[in-house]
Amino acid sequence: MTHIACIANTTAGRYRLRDAQQFDSAAEELGMTVSHVTQFDTQTHHFEWPKKTIDAVWIMGGDGTIRDVVTDMKRIGLNVPIGITPLGTCNVLAHALGITRGNTDYSALRRWTPTTIRMGLFNTQPFLMAISTGIDASIVHHVSVRLKRWIGRYAYAIELIRHGGRVSNRSAVVLETPTQSYVGTGCIITNTPHYAGPFVLTHTPLTAPALTAVVHRFKSVWHWVGFLVLLVLGKTHRHPQVQHIPITTATLHTGQPIQCDGDGVFSDAHLSISATQLAVLL
Questions:
Q1: Residue 195 sits in the same domain as residue 99
Q2: What number of other Cβ atoms are within 10 A of residue 139's Cβ?
Q3: What is the pTM for the complete model shown?
Q4: 19 with 135, same domain?
Q5: Are 260 and 247 in contact (CB under 8 A)?
Q6: Is residue 281 part of a domain?
Q7: How many domains does the chain have?
Q8: What is the pLDDT of residue 169?
Q9: 4, 13, 84, 121: least surrounded by Cβ within 10 Å?
Q10: Closest listed residue to residue 168, CA positions, set 220, 216, 205
Q11: Which residues of the chain have pLDDT under 50?
Q12: Is residue 235 part of a domain?
């Protein structure tokens, strides 16, 4: 009998008890069993997994929750497909996969056709959306969690306005690939085509083997404004201060803040970047 471990972020702003109830009903109709994983150590980010064999992991939450779960799956060597109910602020991965909040029939359980997608690693730790350093990472570090829960992604826009005068005089960021080095004021290494929700940063599909590094050299707030306009239009590659570089392995050197999948992280100043794979139920 197929057994699914279900992990729900009950503190997510869009979580409702009926989400778990509907999932349980859908799985039961298909003759599947479900274990709800609720124990989570906030210090280690480790889950208390069920002892019986797990055939898939269903995640109800946002981008950060998905990354926490996949990271812990990697820690315990659990190599099974994941499913997603998007309940976060931006839901970047869900946007890229075409998964919506309204898909409550859980037809992916019935189809059971795992799709292999690309996943990034930094210093062996997974990232599913993007890892970046520069002003956008500074914004993620300083954004108010309370404000984010209240107005969602618009909290980042408010923090961007506050950071408007800090674009210039940022320390250099260096991206080293096996063949060339690139220098900028910031770098976004993206796994998904989408960034900050529905906006298209690159046009590289999730099934392609290479990540995309977006190295930018912004010296004024107007460079950032131009970038954001082109981001809305899905044409950031046209910005004169931006380079799009396909990578499978690279090293990122930075003295600036780092964010990973929408959460501020404090990591080494030298990040080893690579690409691997993940199976998703669609």
A1: no
A2: 22
A3: 0.82
A4: no
A5: no
A6: no
A7: 2
A8: 60
A9: 13
A10: 220
A11: none
A12: yes
